[in-house]
Amino acid sequence: MFPKGGMGGMMKQAQQMQKKMAQIQSEIEQLKIEGKSGGGMVEVVVDGKKNLLSISLNPEILKEDKEMLEDLIVVAVNDGIKKVDSISKEKMASVTGGMNLPGLF
């Protein structure tokens, strides 16, 4: 009924997977990811918890209108967040073997 090693083996595998996932989550939280927009005119840094850490504006962009600048900032932040999500999914898939575990992160 149970694979080789029985229920104890399955529990041990689950514990190992949980430990690896916690380690990877900790690594992800330490990441600093750059998001960009406007051809690099707006750059942001987002951490692995999706917190905005910094915004850098090319002085040339300040000559543009306020609404465009606001839009570029939003795009850059979203770019950084998407990169964090992508890296998180990739790293977790290496542990879970591609199993989709809802609510994981």
Look at the helices and sheets and give the structural class: alpha+beta
Q: Report the CATH topology name.
A: Ybab, Chain: A
Number of separate structural domains? 1
**Going across the major beta sheet, what is the strand order?**
1-2-3
CA radius of gyration is: 20 Å
Superfamily (CATH H level) name: Nucleoid-associated protein YbaB-like domain
Question: CA-to-CA gap between the ends?
Answer: 32 Å
Overall strand count: 3
- Largest beta sheet, briefly? 3 strands, antiparallel
User: What's the helix count?
Assistant: 2
Shape summary: rod-shaped
Proportion of residues in extended strands: 15-25%
Give the helices and strands as they follow along the chain.
Answer: HEEEH
Bin the helical content: 40-55%
CATH class: Alpha Beta
